[in-house]
Amino acid sequence: MRSWSGPEIPSLGDLGLGAGPVVQVHDTSSAGLLAVDPAERARLYVCGITPYDATHMGHAATYLAFDLLQRAWRDHGLDVLYTQNVTDVDDPLLERATATGVDWVELAERETQLFREDMTALRIIAPVHYIGAVESIEQVVDLVERLQEAGAVYPVDDDLYFDVHADPGFGLVSGFDEAEMLTIFPQRGGDPDRVGKKHPLDCLLWQAERPGEPAWDTRLGRGRPGWHIECAAIALDHLGPAFDVQGGGSDLVFPHHEMSASEATVATDEPFATAYVHAGMVAYEGEKMSKSKGNLVLVSKLRAAGHDPMAIRLALLAHHYRSDWEWFGEEISAAEARLASWRVAVARSVAPSGEALVASIRAAMSDDLDAPAALAAIDAWAADDSAEDPQAGRTTRAAIDALLGVEL
Ligand code: 5CA
Ligand code: ZN
Fold first, then answer.
1. Theoretical Cys-Cys bridge with 324: which of 27, 272, 280, 360, CB 3.0 to 4.6 Å?
2. Is 350 within 8 Å of 387 (Cβ atoms)?
3. Among the atoms of ligand 1, which is closest to the Cα of residue 87?
4. Quick check: CB of 281 below 6 Å from ligand 1?
5. Which atom in ligand 1 lies closest to the alpha carbon of residue 61?
6. Where are the domains of the chain?
7. Rounded percentage of the chain residues whose pLDDT exceeds 70
């Protein structure tokens, strides 16, 4: 499907500032920092929205995290091949469509379009491939057939299930033991108690047509894809196996990323991704912000209320991408004040060294995308009235744009 129009990104190298450092990010599967430094091109897959409601600040925080990763990679000199999916057919979308009397295709199109507009306003880098589940049915069927050839698929009634233990590495993404998995699985769409499954954790690959639900005629019969295989198929098709980073919010660690990784590994005999990077959860009114609960702060509402998208972006940047945090509304005024002070600071005819500040921002961002540390360095520079560098305003404006995506 159509991607969105992403921002222009200035090159700091072109300003004579050289290249940024190698980027280190926290990898969930090894529970530590990993230098992700492929030759020439980094390949990134980020799990996209299920488009049944509007973009909230939790979504925005997650997509911002992977925008920052790409900015750091680009500054280091890498090209980035970026794929993101849209889960445009799945239970929650169909349930919302039925409950509101809207056609599911229209609902998905409307919310995906709003998401594109929110991403453009926030200057989030657009994926090269923006791919819906509906347009990937063929790839899913191919992948399920590869799993069948590997002996990892069995039927339950007319549905098809993946035998998770066909992958000796099952569990290595999350690091969870079976008890933890069994607790979380039913909370995140799993069906441990379904009669006929060989193991409670085995997951749905293909769901046979249900009355009143959309279905496609395929070699697997009439039906639709399960959730995890959708991302495995889209990522393998557009990035190939062993790509650099699989990303999403921490609510996707298990089962979603665990299952996708195992499915892809069994089908290809190669690792799915090198690193699994997860953003923390944004809460509101004491609970994880989520469409299913309805405790939402919508990006589009903040924009409609007249808040500068760059202030919304700065409010998000004030939190480290890996931390869980709660939105309390007043952060937007703090971000607006910060934005105003930075705009004044870069307009100074002479300011403290721009190059030293760029080095600090680069050091912070290449160290697991530490945006709060970068913001603190910029605040200190803005508050310092020593006058030594007539180029500092220009250099700083470009660095804040290139590395943090904030246009001053
Ligand atoms: N379509 C699937 C992924 S394949 C999905 O999880 N969709 S979603 O609309 O529920 O979430 C979209 C992205 O936002 C996911 O990466 C998810 O991890 C992230 N996300 C959802 N809620 C929050 C939240 N409260 N805070 C931070 N990130 C969130
Ligand atoms: Zn996904």
1. 280
2. yes
3. 1
4. yes
5. 27
6. 20-280, 309-322+330-404
7. 100
Write down the pLDDT at residue 41: 97
When pLDDT is averaged across residues 394-401 and rounded to a whole number, the result is 97
Q: Is 249 in the pocket of ligand 1 (CB under 6 A)?
A: yes
18-64: per-residue pLDDT in tens? 999 999 999 999 999 999 999 989 999 999 999 998 999 999 999 99
Does the pLDDT of residue 293 top 90, yes or no? no
Q: Judge: domain 20-280, CATH 3.40.47.10.
A: no
Find the 142 Cα to ligand 1 centroid distance in Å: 26
Class of domain 309-322+330-404: mainly alpha
In angstroms, what is the span from residue 402 Cα to ligand 1's centroid? 25
pLDDT for 354 equals 94
Over residues 58-96, the pLDDT tens digits come to 999 999 999 999 999 999 999 999 999 999 999 999 999
Q: Residue 247 burial (CB < 10 Å; 0-12/13-18/19+)?
A: buried
Token pair listed for 395: 């250099």
Instruction: Indicate yes or no: pTM above 0.85.
Output: yes
Q: Look at residue 195 in the predicted model and tell me its pLDDT.
A: 97
**What is the pLDDT averaged over residues 243-265?**
98
Q: Rounded distance, CA 88 to CA 381, Å?
A: 45
Is residue 211 exposed (0-12), middle (13-18) or buried (19+ Cβ within 10 Å)?
Answer: exposed
- In sequence order, the β-bridge partners of residue 334 are none
**CA triplet 111, 211, 230: central angle to 5 degrees?**
50
Strand (E) or helix (H) holding 80: strand 79-86
